[in-house]
Amino acid sequence: MDNVRLILWKNVRLRFYHPFLTFFEIFFPMIVFYQGIVFYHTFQVPPTNGTLYPIYAEQQLYSMFKSPRIIIAYTPKTAFTDGIMKKTVQLFGTHILDYGYLKSRIERFRLIYRYLLLLCSSIS
């Protein structure tokens, strides 16, 4: 217990000999904390109303997806993905592009480009 008292007394004496450092160690963290709070409230973005989307019934959503403009591309070509895409076509009637048989990315890009040109020309 006497050792602790001795160390605390030594700490007080050292603080007495360095008043500027003591002041700096006590008040600098408080000043930085206060400035952080001030800057947080100064640059805080006021809350805005979020984007509200219209509410649609289930049948309205299905009719929107039956548009010929929707293209679903999928890969790899497996029995599982083919089954999912067939059910999607039955439900929505969308256009399906199968990329499973294409070997390179260039062929895929060319196919998408041709299909989009064809689709854009048929719409306009």
Question: How would you sum up this structure, described in words?
Answer:
It is a single chain. With 124 residues, this protein is mainly alpha-helical. The chain is elongated. The protein has 2 domains: 2-42, no CATH class; 58-123, no CATH class. It is built from 5 helices and 2 strands.
Short overview:
This protein is mostly helical.
- In DSSP terms (H or I, runs of 4 or more residues), the helix count works out at 5
**Class based on secondary structure composition and strand pairing:** mainly alpha
The chain-level mean pLDDT equals 76
Give helix and strand order, one letter per element, not per position: HHHEHEH
The total beta strand count reads 2
- State Rg: 35 Å
Helical content (DSSP H or I, runs of 4+)? 55-70%
Keywords:
124 residues; mainly alpha; elongated
Chain-wise SSE layout:
Blueprint: H1 2-17, H2 19-42, H3 58-65, E1 71-74, H4 79-92, E2 95-98, H5 105-123
Parallel strand pairs: 1-2
